[in-house]
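JOB MANIFEST
job_type = single_chain_structure
chain_count = 1
residues = 157
[input]
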Amino acid sequence: MIIADIMTPYPRSCSVDDTLERAARLMWEHDCGALPIADRRGHIIGMVTDRDICMAAYTQGRPLREVPVTVAASQSVHSVPPEASLALAYHLMKMHRVRRLPVIDLGGNLVGIVSVGDIVRCARHARGLDDDVDPERIMSMLAEVCRSSVVAKPPTN
């Protein structure tokens, strides 16, 4: 099984010239929690999530229509080609603690997104058919992706 078999094709994206308001509107209209950000040549240069938008709204103190999407976006993009194995997606998601990977073809074009949700749905239907869809591997990846980066502090009363 390869990434192209389970990815969400034709994902929405936003431009480096867009604001967080536009990104939030696209996420709402297309029921997604993250968008790749394309530069003026169409190459993916970042990702913005619904959480990024919330944190920027809190920290910027300005309306979302005034905040460029690049302010809140991740600056590093981890992607996979459509012909990559699920094992590569697990590895990248686990190593970089990301829930979604843009799928980029050889020409540098965005052709899909593969998410933790796509992998879990695939595993549910492919039990025992593919070594890459092993529940232990998926659980290991999920545990790392969902691990908090903040050390828990005891509650204060």
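[summary]
DSSP finds seven helices and six strands in the chain.
Strands lie at 8-9, 14-15, 34-38, 44-49, 100-104, 110-115.
exit_status = 0
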